[in-house]
Design goal:
about 475 residues
Length: about 475
């Protein structure tokens, strides 16, 4: 056993020494994520102490509803844009890079406006009939305005990730999060901790962050013409379909529109999975229990840091992998790194939630075990999400969609059965069951892909 462990860490050290640029990119990309954790945790503590469990529960319901607008303004368009702009840069096809970025921005803006209008119309029914609190509608109307500016804030991130300027991306992302933190600090300083003030602060921070940093992207990238990129037939189809290129077909075996369609579907399912626990708690539980659950989820922020950082660094690299050997090497290095991170994540999952009462107050002390369960779920997610990224370059996107659908319906059933019986613990148990199922299904497919790659490399295949 000792020899196996020694061999593993020795090979890990060799892989890490051979990936110095990747480690530097991770180090740079983790900065905004750490700032996000500190600012997010600080905001959460101030909001939780100011609003109390019931007020925090109402805030969580509102933000979960607003997240739908973000989901429909994205629909996987951001991930698709990063994938193909990265591939365009790797092949020195700058007109295609610009065309993909412009397509994503226009379509995301349209979807954001439509989503805001539809959600505003549905808000009175949802708040009154489902959450039994019709007063939340007014807060939702105000918060929905911010969703329109979210696509603008994503443009710099997509552009600088595609050209692998992670330091610039880090500065921009950090700046956007600091703006949000300043708003909450101002509210606390002047003792303005009412729910409406918190919503307005979030809205103003979103607008400032979006408009300020989009100026860092070259104008030619956003507004330049790309006459040498062949559009789809018809203006409407050209507006909807992602600009295609023979590079994408040659390197990944699919056209851009097919990938975008799969990614849209996957994004919808993932976003619904992320919010369904709060929505069902709004039906089965009271606002105070939702507030305790919301506070407990704040201990999962470090996992969000790791996952977002790894995604930032790995997504462009996975998109640019075109040979079997490069894909295999990336899978090996990613697996070893995620294994170590998950190990430390397990330790964190036990000890960190013990400080719940210290940070949030005695009224949230019930959330210790709940936070430990939610962190345990994140350990599974951390391990799976990062190694699954390489699968996008192996044509696995269509498999990820049906796996996510199966896990989503399992999660809903677990919540419906367990929430009335064991309260908010039912949501945590449902997430763990769903995540384990995803790891088993997706991990099995990834393993077989991994074996095929090893065979191809051993036979000397170059593609």
């Amino acid at each position: 056993m000792y020899q196996i462990i020694t061999k593993f860490f020795k090979s890990l050290g060799i892989d890490l020494r051979g990936s110095k640029q990747g480690l530097r990119d991770i180090a740079v990309s983790v900065v905004p994520q750490l700032i996000g954790v500190l600012s997010g945790l600080t905001c959460s503590i101030l909001i939780a102490r100011g609003l109390g469990p019931a007020g925090l529960g109402n805030y969580a319901l509102i933000m979960s509803y607003i997240a739908i607008a973000g989901m429909f303004s994205n629909l996987g368009l951001g991930e698709t844009a990063i994938r193909y702009t990265s591939l365009a840069v790797a092949n020195n096809d700058l007109p295609w890079q610009s065309a993909v970025l412009q397509w994503a921005l226009k379509l995301r803006m349209l979807m954001a406006v439509l989503a805001a209008l539809i959600l505003a119309l549905l808000a009175p029914y949802i708040t009154n009939q489902f959450w039994h609190n019709k007063d939340l509608s007014v807060y939702i109307y105000v918060a929905l305005i911010g969703g329109i500016f979210v696509p603008l804030s994503a443009v710099p991130t997509i552009y600088f990730q595609s050209i692998r300027k992670f330091s610039t991306n880090s500065i921009i992302t950090s700046g956007q999060r600091i703006i949000g933190l300043l708003g909450i600090l101002i509210l606390s300083l002047f003792n303005m901790r009412q729910l409406m003030y918190v919503i307005l602060s979030t809205l103003i921070a979103t607008i400032i962050g979006a408009l300020a940093f989009i100026l860092t992207v070259p104008k030619d990238i956003i507004f330049g013409r790309n006459d040498n990129v062949q559009p789809s037939t018809g203006k409407l189809i050209s507006f909807i379909k992602c600009p295609d290129s023979s590079i994408g077909k040659r390197n990944h075996g699919e056209n851009t529109s097919q990938f975008a369609a799969f990614q849209m579907t996957l994004t919808i399912v993932v976003m619904l999975t992320a919010q369904v626990d709060i929505w069902l708690m709004g039906f089965f539980l009271n606002s105070e229990q939702i507030g305790i659950y919301s506070a407990a989820t704040r201990f999962t922020l470090p996992f969000a840091v790791l996952i977002a950082t790894l995604n930032t660094v790995l997504w462009p690299r996975a998109s640019a992998c075109v040979t079997s050997k490069s894909k295999l090497d990336l899978m090996n290095k990613t697996f070893k790194l995620c294994f170590v991170l998950t190990f430390f994540g397990i330790i964190y999952s036990y000890f960190a939630p013990l400080s719940t009462a210290f940070f949030f107050g005695e009224s949230y002390s019930e959330g210790v075990l709940l936070a430990q369960l939610l962190c345990a779920r994140q350990c599974i997610l951390l391990f799976y999400c990062s190694i699954s990224l390489v699968g996008y370059s192996l044509g696995m996107i269509k498999h990820y969609v049906w796996i996510a659908l199966v896990c989503f319906f399992v999660l809903i059933q677990c919540n419906i059965i367990l929430l009335p019986v064991i309260g908010f613990y039912g949501a945590a148990v449902g997430l763990i069951v769903s995540e384990i199922l995803q790891l088993l299904l997706g991990g099995t497919l990834i393993y077989f892909k991994y074996k095929n790659l090893k065979r191809e490399v051993s036979l000397g295949y170059t593609q």
